[in-house]
Write a structure and sequence with these properties.
Length: about 1250
């Protein structure tokens, strides 16, 4: 098989398209070749992939080659099967003929011979050379073509097409292309099936899968070709991993360190063959190179990077297994070159923007991983040649290099004989290297950059290590715990250091060296030996240039680090990019480029702080602070010092933390050019005191205690300190600052400060921001702490949500003013009005009450106001009962207090004993009502309004420390008459005497005693006999209980009715007079007037007078005149027709008994009617003569005309000079009458 390798590889490199054979039977190809080749490549081709699914290929490449060409010469059978992919995929037979006999005798047998091979895909193109003007030639050409179609085409497949050389038909080229694609498709399917059958036989011809893959590649079926290469790789790995057979791995040739991942032509296949297979080192790279080539053709650079990174990791493990047979550091060098090759190949701008956003992000992440892997391997090589002191000992570098094992050659390289000067130079560099002391004097042990001690690892792998110089071995282990001598030299005293130097040089001199026993190598010798061996391993000039000097190393190191960081920034792994920005910042910081270093350090610190990685933050922050100090960035430098102080105390010593604080104080008291507020939220936290929040009332001032935790290591003086309160009930409410009046000294840990609290609006408040000033430095903190136990100094315990520290209640809940009683008081008499004052957990010391009465109510200022302790006076209201349950004086043993107060300018001041206890205030008032009470009867019942006797008292209570609390309430007090009078006629005697019953209803909650009562009658009524209008005296005194009633009988009769002019001078109403007395308590309601109670002795009695108006009406059962409505005509009423309406007036009594005034027996009448419904023809008003004898009667007639149809009210007759009580309607007039519409006119009738 090896004999075909060179030919196979040359074919693969030169053949990238399918071949279409041209069988030129009639020597036509030179004439039409150019026209056919103009159609290449084919615009669109439909082929079948390996799974027989159609695939469309754009711009399908092909080449027309004559069958007589040497490139299509015949091969041996075993060669044909291997290189079958380069055989023609279609055969185009070009023929022409202008004679049927010639076709039958010569052309047809030859075509039969050409087309009898079933393995070929062919079709015939008949070329017509007949000129269009030659009809005979054209007809003959058509006959010959028809004969060819009959002989060589079938119903299943059309194998012929006609090409007119003078002008082909429009669809000829489409027909030609479809037939060619059909032949190519059939040939491809047949050959794919053949290769699959051969592969299944598991023959020794291992190139069968690659031949199939290359055939797919030629057909532009890149997906199928890629799958074949993947299958070939799996088959090869199974063969490689087959136990029992030792194979040469490869990789020992010069230049093998340069990865050939993307270069399939790196080595000819004939050079990597081994027996029946290939060396793993070269062939696996060869397969991946073709896979990546296909992926690039598919425009999938992301997959190249993904597969490439996985391949590098896996192949690196294979290199580790054979490391002892490979050149020194072959694995590291190969990984570096492989990563760089993939990075350069996938960095072409032609691939940007061809994938979705998610894939693009992942693509950048993979490139970042490639840069990072290359960077780590590059640092390992640099460390091996002595550049360890120039590598930043950062946490990320330490973590990566500490987990990366050392190279494991079979024999560690030895120092060349002529390298003594280089060894001395390396020793000088090692001894001169000292660990850098960070800003603020921070000293830390450098982080290791090696998995184990390099000195011990290198000497252990020396070829003939025996006893050696044990002192150097011990010295190396002691002084090189992290792989370099710089750490040991920094910790050793100067005298001991000089002794060690002399001993090292003495023991390494040639005079004391015994050649029979190998001396252990020193660290400088290890570096020089590794550098010389790497020079033979590395064949890439650029890579060796990057390791040739410290400057070149740093340049390459920065290039790789920036590449990794930029790609990570463009991916999902932005945090990795930020961390690598810190490595870039370290290099800039070392070279004095503080501006760039500070910008990168700030991003790294933000990441570490956000993730809570305080140990990493403690390593970076001092560098950032030093950069800011060098840049004269005072604000940033102060912020960094505060952040250093806010880190865990265990990360820095007390001396270092004191240095941080000293810098803060120094800058605060210096002349800063641009003083800016400093956020110390991570250093100073605060909260309210433990327990419930401070509760105040609206407008009350107080003091507020705030607990402040200081993270400073020493005491610090604050020139000013203030804390803001934020309302939780209103987002628009601005924050209010509470300032401390004096300077505050904060000690480390817990502190308690007190600030004055002015009156606040009602609501709940939380602490907002703590602000203050140290010198010229203004600081602020917005971090809240839970405030642990009193003995705890933990100030970094935050609470969310913030606990309220202050609650301000509304004023209505401080005090309550209410009326002491709800029952009615006597009107027009001086009465005590009680007002209950009830403080609710609030002192009323020095409170002032303003009293203002409403209309109809006066305060008797001549009397004193009484105030006493309030007990269960009445307990009449539910609210009073509920509210009293929370007071301190509700127990039966409370102390009774009483005091008389004087009203001055409408205000009184509360005594001291009333500041915290319930009390009642008795105010003497008089409600005035000038109207005379009116009684009611059974005919006209009582109609009283609840507002008639209502009076109001406006109360305004001012209290609080500075009288800032104001409570206002209007108290309603009900006043009423002692009685309500109602009357009814109890009986009517035969002689006309009426028994009038007067019922007295008690309207107060007190006992009323009636001593006398008399009735002053109105005109028309007289007392019977010669009485004075008083009942029998034996009835008195009459006692009426509260809310009860009593009755008094009066005997009256009807009197003579006087004239109208005389009646106006007399009283129109009857007056009831009652002389009474009242007995009651002011705590229950109505009581004796204040004047009576204060001036008269206890046994004296002063009666009160009550008057009420009573309206008496003459009886309607004894009329003088009777008015009757006479019936209307039986024909009914009709609109427009006259009708006579009649009334009969009859005298029921004689003139001397009727009690009405008449002039010579004449009676005045008046007819009223709605003018819209009736028209009256006659006098509406006039006098008629009526005899004064009883029983006399008269008829009054009026002529009327109805105006509207329907039910209307008829005209009414009235007697203006006769009272309604003296008129009886008999029979009464109808309420409504029916009026018919007018009759139809005959002149408007239409004959049938």
């Amino acid at each position: 098989m090896a004999s075909y390798l060179a030919q196979f590889q040359s074919i693969k490199n030169s053949c990238d398209h399918v071949v279409i054979a041209v069988e030129d039977v009639s020597d036509l190809w030179p004439n039409i070749k150019s026209r056919f080749e103009e159609r290449l490549p084919f615009k669109r081709a439909s082929l079948n992939n390996k799974t027989r699914n159609p695939v469309f290929v754009e711009n399908f490449p092909a080449e027309f080659i004559l069958t007589t060409d040497s490139r299509l010469r015949s091969r041996f059978p075993q060669e044909q099967s291997l290189f079958w992919f380069r055989e023609p995929y279609a055969t185009v037979v070009l023929v022409t003929c202008e004679d049927l006999d010639e076709f039958k005798t010569i052309l047809k047998p030859r075509l039969k011979l050409i087309t009898q091979n079933d393995e070929k895909e062919w079709f015939i193109v008949f070329v017509s050379r007949a000129h269009p003007s030659n009809d005979n030639a054209v007809k003959m050409a058509k006959k010959v073509y028809a004969k060819i179609e009959v002989d060589f085409s079938s119903k299943k497949r059309e194998r012929c097409c006609k090409y007119d050389i003078h002008g082909p038909e429009a669809n000829f080229w489409e027909d030609l292309e479809s037939k060619i694609m059909e032949c190519v498709r059939n040939t491809l399917d047949r050959r794919v099936q053949f290769y699959e059958d051969e592969i299944r036989k598991l023959t020794e011809q291992r190139f069968m899968p690659e031949s199939l893959a290359f055939m797919f590649e030629m057909a532009h079926l890149y997906e199928d070709a890629l799958r074949e290469y993947d299958e070939l790789e799996l088959c090869y790995l199974e063969t490689v991993n087959m136990p029992g057979k030792q194979r040469d791995f490869g990789g020992v040739d010069r230049g093998d360190d340069l990865a050939a991942l993307l270069n399939p032509e790196n080595k000819p296949l004939a050079q990597i063959v081994q027996d029946d297979s290939f060396r793993e080192f070269e062939f696996r790279q060869y397969l991946f190179a073709y896979q990546s080539k296909l992926l690039f053709k598919l425009n999938r650079p992301y997959e190249v990077a993904s597969r490439g990174y996985s391949f590098i990791i896996g192949f690196s493990q294979a290199l580790t297994l054979h490391e002892n047979m490979l050149p020194f550091c072959m694995r590291e060098v190969w990984v570096i070159t492989a990563c760089l090759a993939l990075i350069n190949a996938t960095a072409s701008p032609n691939y940007d923007g061809l994938v979705a956003l998610e894939i693009e992000k992942e693509f950048f992440r993979l490139k970042g991983d490639l840069y990072s892997l290359c960077r780590v391997k590059f640092m390992r090589l640099a460390y091996l040649i002595g550049y360890g002191t120039d590598i930043e000992r950062s946490p990320v570098n330490s973590a990566l290099l500490s987990m990366l094992p050392w190279p494991k050659p079979l024999v560690w390289p030895s120092v060349p004989p002529d390298a003594s000067s280089e060894v001395l130079e390396k020793e000088k560099v090692i001894l001169q290297a000292t660990p850098k002391i960070k800003h603020f004097g921070i000293q830390r042990k450098p982080l290791p950059l090696e998995p184990s001690v390099l000195l011990r690892e290198a000497n252990r792998r020396r070829a003939s290590l025996s006893a050696g110089n044990m002192f150097e071995m011990f010295d190396g282990r002691q002084n090189s715990s992290d792989g370099s001598a710089s750490d040991a030299s920094s910790r050793m005293p100067l005298s001991n250091k000089m002794n060690v130097i002399s001993m090292l040089r003495t023991n390494s001199s040639p005079g004391n060296f015994d050649g029979s026993v190998d001396r252990p190598m020193r660290l400088a010798e290890i570096f020089v030996a590794a550098e010389h061996d790497l020079k033979h391993t590395i064949s890439d000039a650029n890579l060796w240039k990057a390791l040739s000097s410290v400057e070149e190393f740093e340049q390459k190191y920065l290039e790789l680090t920036k590449g990794a960081a930029n790609n990570y920034h463009n991916s999902w792994w932005k945090r990795h990019g930020v961390v690598l920005d810190g490595e870039i910042a370290a290099v800039c910081f070392r070279h004095g480029n503080f501006d760039l270093a500070a910008k990168s350090y700030e991003k790294v610190c933000a990441l570490y702080a956000g993730e809570g990685w305080q140990e990493l933050l403690a390593d970076i922050l001092p560098n950032l602070a030093e950069c800011q100090k060098m840049l004269n960035d005072e604000a940033g430098y102060l912020a960094s010092c505060v952040r250093l102080l806010s880190l865990d105390k265990g990360l820095f010593s007390t001396k270092e933390r004191q240095a941080f604080q000293a810098e803060v104080i120094r800058l605060a008291h210096s002349e800063m050019k641009h003083p800016v507020p400093l956020d110390v939220s991570s250093l100073i936290t605060f909260s309210g005191n433990p327990g419930p929040p401070l509760e105040l009332c609206d407008g009350d001032p107080s003091t507020l205690s705030v607990t402040v935790w200081s993270g400073f290591p020493d005491n610090i003086t604050l020139d000013s300190l203030s804390v803001t309160l934020t309302a939780t009930f209103n987002a628009d409410e601005g924050a209010k600052a509470l300032r401390s009046s004096t300077a505050t000294i904060l000690k480390p840990g817990r502190n308690t400060i007190t600030v004055a609290l002015p009156p606040q609006r009602p609501g709940s408040y939380v602490l907002g921001v703590l602000t203050g000033q140290i010198g010229q430095l203004r600081f602020r903190s917005h971090s809240f702490s839970k405030g642990g136990p009193a003995d705890s100094d933990d100030f970094m315990s935050y609470e969310k949500p913030t606990r309220p520290i202050l609650k301000v209640f509304k004023p209505r809940s401080l005090v309550d003013l209410a009326a002491a009683i709800s029952s009615a008081l006597l009107i027009n008499e001086t009465q005590w009005v009680g007002v209950i004052v009830r403080p609710i957990d609030y002192s009323l010391k020095g409170a002032v009450l303003h009293i203002d009465t409403g209309p109809g109510l006066n305060i008797e200022e001549s009397h004193v106001i009484e105030m006493e302790t309030f007990g269960n006076i009445s307990q009449s209201s539910t609210e009073m009962a509920k509210s009293n349950g929370t007071q301190n004086n509700c127990s039966p043993s409370y102390k009774k207090e009483f005091q008389q107060l004087k009203l001055q300018d409408g205000r009184i001041e509360f005594p001291a004993w009333a500041s915290d206890t319930n009390s009642v205030l008795w105010i003497p008032v008089r409600a005035i009502n000038d109207k005379l009470p009116r009684g009611s009867s059974s005919v006209t019942p009582q109609k009283q309004s609840n507002l008639d006797g209502m009076r109001t008292i406006a109360l305004k209570l001012e209290f609080g420390v500075s009288y800032n609390q104001i409570f206002e309430r209007t108290v309603a007090v009900h006043f009423t008459d002692p009685f309500h009078v109602s009357t009814r006629v109890a009986d009517k005697c035969n002689d006309g005497t009426l028994l009038l019953q007067v019922i007295l209803h008690s309207q107060v909650k007190a006992t009323l005693t009636i001593y006398d009562a008399w009735l002053e009658l109105q005109d028309g009524f007289v007392h019977t006999g010669q009485g004075s209008g008083r009942p029998t005296s034996d009835f008195f005194p009459l006692v009426i209980s509260p809310t009860s009633r009593a009755g008094i009988m009066f005997s009256i009769c009807l009197g003579k009715v006087i004239g109208k002019d005389e009646a106006e001078a007399l009283q129109p109403e009857s007056i009831l007079n009652i002389r009474y007395g009242i007995y009651g308590e002011r705590t229950n309601g109505a009581h004796p007037p204040v004047a009576v109670e204060c001036t008269e002795p206890e046994d004296a009695r002063q009666d009160l007078i009550f008057k009420s108006a009573i309206v008496l009406q003459r009886p309607v059962l004894d009329p003088c005149l009777a008015v009757g409505f006479l019936p209307l005509p039986s024909t009914g009423l009709r609109v427009g027709q006259f009708v006579t309406v009649q009334w009969r007036v009859e005298r029921l009594k004689g003139f001397e008994d009727n009690g009405i005034s008449e002039h010579n027996g004449e009676v005045l009448y008046e007819v009223s009617a709605n003018s819209e419904n009736w028209m009256i023809a006659g006098r509406k008003r006039g006098h008629v003569s009526l005899s004064t004898n009883q029983g006399s009667r008269i008829i009054i007639s009026i002529l009327c005309v109805p105006l509207v149809a329907g039910y209307v009210r008829p005209p009414q007759l009235g007697l203006p000079n006769v009272d309604e009580s003296n008129i009886s309607c008999n029979p009464p007039g109808p309420h409504l009458v029916c009026v018919m519409p007018p009759a139809l006119s005959s002149s408007f009738c239409i004959p049938p």
